[in-house]
Structure formats: structure tokens, C-alpha cells
Amino acid sequence: MSGPTVTLTADPTGPAAPSGSYRSAPVSVWSRVVHHQLFWPVVALVLLVVACGIKNPLFLDVEIRDGHLFGQLVDISRYAATPLLLALGMALVISTGGIDLSVGAVMAISLAVSLSYLDGNPGAGDVGTVVVAVGLGILVALVAGTFNGFMVSVLGIQPFIATMILMVAGRGVAMLITKGQITTVTSPPFKYLGSGFVLGVPTPVVIALLALVGVAVLVRRTALGMLLESIGINREASRLAGVQSRNITWFVYILAGVLAGLAGIVYGAPTMAADANNIGLMKEMDAIMCVVLGGTALSGGKFYLSGTVVGALILSTIERAVIIFHIPSQITPLFKALVIILVCVAQSPKLREYLAPRRRRSVVAAAVAVPAPIKEEAR
Fold this sequence. Notes:
The chain has a single domain, classed as ABC transporter involved in vitamin B12 uptake, BtuC. The protein is globular. The chain has 16 helices and eight strands. The chain has helices at 29-34, 39-55, 72-95, 103-118, 127-154, 159-178, 188-195, 203-220, 224-233, 235-240, 245-268, 283-293, 305-324, 332-346, 349-354, 358-367, and strands at residues 5-8, 62-65, 68-71, 183-184, 197-198, 201-202, 273-274, 374-377. The chain is mainly alpha-helical. The termini are close together.
């Protein structure tokens, strides 16, 4: 004797359920643009540029003199090169769930080594000598990045503590290299790295763009980017899935060190002087700001290189806006902090959820609606 059977029937008083799976309502192009990760950072950048243009009508002027680009917008791009180089490496490190507080000190060490090699060298004005000097500076930065990666990935020390070691000691190392003095040289080829032009474009901008393209190809045209994000999301699960998390983490710290060394050379090239006590001071904070402004979360996981570029431009524009609006130096950090807070709040997930279109919220609510009542029929 068979028992009663249970049949699921739709509630006749309720709305008819669509056949098949739920389909989300089409989202407008404008909605996709507004909810894009880069929308609010780009809006902030545009507002800053417009405000500076209103205050100083010459701000937006770009002219060509002797085949080279000149103007305040060009200067902003030039000054954004250093934080961008730092932020590219920082973005990759943060994507693994780590942090690198030593990039400012690595800048000082790299520049100190390069200029100490050129100092007193009779061939300081030769291109070959400058190439060797730059190579030595980047090599030392590579060693510093290797040290950080070893401390984090092999010894398992917390990234904050491991990189703070070099942050504190690295500047002392730079002081030892320069013997506590400001090292200055006269080398036109070296100065060209910071104040020259390539096809009319400032050399620092070209160097930063080449680094950006190289990093983008490395992480987006290979599986490295996906592996970095998987490590940042869940390191242990990635390891169990066969990802060599230790080697990959070590590699990104090395890459961050190399980029920091290159940033130090680009930063110090225009003046051809190395002040180990001030070069790169607090630049690690600028790098972190660029990454965060670009939408990358400090908790690790997904990272945005394009957002990092926008973040570097925002930071450089803020520093120029301080000059244009004649903001006193005492409250300059407050002005910078207010802009950064507004951008971060605007792109926060909670605010995005609150501002989500009503239609999208109604579709989601319908998709998770309570099933229809169960009707029992006796056979």
C-alpha cells in the first residue's frame, strides 16, 4: 500500500512564475558605468582638474616648445610617475594579502648606490657609466626585495613587521652609503632619466608607462594575475590546489623592490642629488593611497592596475591643487585626507549597494522569494 504523495503546485493567487531559471532585468549602460570600479576615482580626478582650471585658466594649457610638451597637465603626469612605479609593485603585493612598507627606504638605497658610483667617477657623463650606475641601483633594490620576500614567504613573518625592518634599517643603510652627506654629481645622461624627453614626452612618463605595460602583460597575459588573486583570497586553499604560493609571493616582493629602486632613480635624477635622510620619506604611504584609491582592497584578492594609474594621477593632481589654491602647508595633509576620504566613501561597497537601482533590487528580491505553498494530495 502506497503512502500519500506530495505534489508541488503554484499558488493560484500569486504571480505566475516564469519557466526556466530567473533572468535578471537588463541593466542600462549608464548603470554599468556608474557602478564600475573606476567611476568615482575618475570623477574625482576630473573634478580636481576642472576646479584647478577654473581657479587658473592656464592650468589646462599644453604647448609644444622645441618639440617637447609643456604645461601643468604634463607636469602632473611627470610627478605621477614615481608614485605609479611604487604603486604597481604595491598593488601586486597587496593582492596577495601582504604589504610593503620598505619601498621608500629602497628608493633611498637605490639612488644612493647609483650616485655614489657616479660620484668622483671620471666617466660620470658617459652613457655606459650611467647604465652601470642605474643597473647597480636596481640590483641593490632587487636584493632588498628578495630579503623582504624571504622574510614573508619562507620564514612566515607578518608582512607588516617583515617590511618594517627594512623600512627602519634601509634608510640607515643609505646613510652609510652616502656617509651621511648629500651626494651630488654632474651627469647629463643621468639627469635625462628624470628631466629629459622621448618624442616630446617626459622621460619619467615614458618609463612609468613601460613599467605599466610590462606589469600588465605579466599579470594579465599569463596566469600570474589569477594566481595572485587566489592567494590573496585564500592562501591555504590555493596551496592545496597546487599553487606555489610561497614562490609567487616571493616573486612579487622582488618585483616591488625592483620597481621601488627604479622609482628612486627617476625621483632623484632631475636634481642628481641623494639625500638619504629624505629621499622616499613616507612614499610608501603614497603608494598605498594610490592602490586604495584605485579600488584595490587592502585585504587582498582582486587588484586593478588601471585604477592604480588613476590613483597616482589623483595624488599628483592634489599636490598641484594645493599650490594653485594657495592652501597653507599646515593644512595640506588635511586637504589631501578629505579628498581621499570622499573617494573611498564614494566607492565603498555599502554605498554602492544603497545606491543600486530600485529595479535591480526588486529583481533580486523576486529571485529569492519564498516558494509556493505545498499542497498534499492523497492517491
